[in-house]
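step 3/5: co-fold with iron/sulfur cluster
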Amino acid sequence: MSGLTRRQFIQIGGAAAGTAAVGAGLTTNWFGADPDVVHDPGTEGDRVVPTFCELCFWKCGVLAHVKDGRVTKLTGNPAHPLSRGRLCPRGTGGIGLLYDPDRLKKPLIRKSKGGDQVFREVEWDAALDHVAENLLKIKDKYGPEAMALYSHGYGGSWFKHLLKAYGSGNIAAPSYAQCRGPREVGFQLTFGSGVGSPETTDMEHSRVITLIGSHLGENMHNTQVQDLARALDRGAELVVVDPRFSIAAGKARYWLPIKPGTDIALLLAWMHVIVNEGLYDHDYLARYAVGLDKLKESLKDRTPEWAFARTTIPPETIVETARFIAGAGPASLVHPGRHVTWYGDDTQRSRAIALLNALLGAWGRKGGFTLPSKVDLPSYPYTKYAHKPKAPPDMPKDTLYPLADSTLASGLCMASIPGTAAYDIKGWIVYGTNLIQSLPAPEQTMKAIQSLDFMVAVDVLPAEICGFADVVLPESTYLERCDEVHTPPYKEPFVAVRQPVVDPLYDSKPGWWIARELAHRIGLNDYFPWKDSVEYAMHRVKAGGFDCDELRLSGVALGKPTPVYIEDGLDPAFDTPSGKIELYSDTLEQAGFDPVPQYEPPEEPPPGQFRLLFGRSPAHTFGRTTNNRFLSEVVDGNEVWLNARVATEMGLKDGTNVVLINQDGVRSEPVPLKATQRIRPDCVYMVHGYGHDAKGLKFAKGRGASDSRLVTRYKVDPIMGGTGMNVNFVRVERWAS
Ligand SMILES: Nc1nc2c(c(=O)[nH]1)N[C@H]1C(S)=C(S)[C@@H](COP(=O)(O)OP(=O)(O)OC[C@H]3O[C@@H](n4cnc5c(=O)[nH]c(N)nc54)[C@H](O)[C@@H]3O)O[C@H]1N2
Ligand SMILES: Nc1nc2c(c(=O)[nH]1)N[C@H]1C(S)=C(S)[C@@H](COP(=O)(O)OP(=O)(O)OC[C@H]3O[C@@H](n4cnc5c(=O)[nH]c(N)nc54)[C@H](O)[C@@H]3O)O[C@H]1N2
Ligand code: SF4
Ligand SMILES: [Mo]
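step 4/5: write tokens
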């Protein structure tokens, strides 16, 4: 490790980094009006520049309003199908990231100084040379696969291309094994394809929407929230299954406060009622599905009474809601959720949700799931990758997680601890992901990091992960750069472009430039032949038959619509072994798993302890916006929800500062208690993304408590390796200041 032994955490923004620690002044000058806080190179003129958002991963179309060289306002692009003229609260706050005084401003290199490790600001050439040298060293010593890339966010495409050209396929993001991986696998096993992002849910036209967790309204994915609101306006009804009375539960006809971890039992009982009473879509299943008899057989004993004992939902409620849900089919959507890595049985729970949707006839139907197409832009005519990489060390095929279809971020992390996997990972490129907060078991992540030969972080802010890197590269924000073109499958196929709104601030550089400069230093020039990302993007746009000038002005162009519902003439294809919807899965059976989901009871919290649950704040995205002063005017910390009766019994009042102590003795930061009727007595709940300890995040540091720190335990999904994280138990204690 660059001649240093143990990698010390370096606080960025302290004296060592050499950056002026200018007081942020918080709300008065958060936008950087103070010239000491922000240096603006002065992009001239008043303009509106269309682009797309990166405050989360939904990528809504944005109109950026520029006055006197400064971005003054971000609004939704009316022409963009994902925003329809509106942004979510976070999207409007992008200016708070652009003008965040705490942004990374110069490349940093880890150096030894009097026995301590410090970061030294360096010029780009020195930083890039150093990274390039280490990339070559690792390749020479261990082979290219010893280098891994963690990449989350749209700018990561340049680094993925770089790593593949370099010879490694070890690319992962926590948005798979820590988020929606099990859902994708559960749906693929059933329908032959996943739900994707943006999800193919057609909520807008649903008559009944059932949410299993999936707290839309707090989870703010723009188009989904708009679709939900439209549906409710039209009279659609909601069934919400959640141990907590979420925002969505407040709008629901039925709220089922389920015992955490028992959803499979409820889903099986619902299917039991639907099958027994013949409420499923007979014609649809006869035409498109196989395995109905076997599914029926396996549901025989899964009665509402059986489920009551497990879920605490009364049998009559289960029967009533089953009929209610089935009565609206096929325009009845059981939402697949997104963050589904809860208990380690998540692929099977997602599959149970898929099966229920199949019984309702909802896949490929209006008000259920669309089967969308996408604009097909030819890819850039690159030279073929010269090296066929070894399989990732986290999933030697046929052994570990046979049905995973993406590399696991947690798996690459494990493989960085020497001797634990098929081969060792020795270097990390970390692009746009704060692994300290997003991977479970932070101690394990730390151990992996300590074992690396080299690590480089590409980020916009001095997040925790940067403090462990050997080199930190400051990327320009999404409002200062052009990225890959966006053409996802969607009911209205479209192509959207991200364009720079203002010039990069400080000494930050766009990701395409960083990746290209690195490539040129390690002999991979052929893979980055374009002048800049605009030339790259325009090449693809033109090749797809779109007008570049028009696209620059509008930010988005619609493709040719195709039918997305069976009732509109679509002939659905199911990419399963049988070519049909698989109600009984031979694939699972052959791999040694239950072909139809079975219920396993979760471990119970011991007396005096509560299951730790977590979720989203409508005003923030994880920890990536908690330093955003603009958004923090709306929400500037988190709190811990505890059942009001339990709180009273414990002598704890609403607003008291408490600490949470988990089963392994790990303590949270102090955090205010929210004593509320709106949560079951067996769990506590908090918003993820708080409890930063990186000093450079001057606003966020010390605010709220971190759920991530308390997730020291996780349960691995045996089917695809997802890490179920709702398996930690905590005590709640008054904070003794
Ligand atoms: N504003 C905002 N929006 C976001 C994000 C963000 O950071 N901020 N992140 C985006 C991303 S990447 C994702 S993955 C999604 C995540 O959003 P979702 O997919 O909605 O995440 P969940 O984990 O389902 O939602 C948490 C809810 O599940 C409930 N829950 C916990 N345990 C159980 C259980 O055992 N059973 C049931 N039935 N419910 C349970 C919790 O009480 C809570 O209400 O949000 C997206 N949208
Ligand atoms: N304990 C716990 N763990 C979780 C979750 C949870 O709720 N609780 N949620 C899980 C889910 S659903 C997901 S999707 C993952 C998400 O996990 P991550 O992908 O790690 O998401 P963030 O924590 O938002 O990390 C984003 C990082 O990207 C940086 N960044 C922001 N914009 C840019 C940019 O334009 N360029 C670059 N280079 N960097 C940028 C931010 O500064 C931050 O350091 O976490 C998962 N892990
Ligand atoms: S949902 Fe919000 S934060 Fe996410 S891309 Fe859209 S506007 Fe931006
Ligand atoms: Mo996620």
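step 5/5: annotate
Residues 437 and 708 are 5 Å apart (CA to CA).
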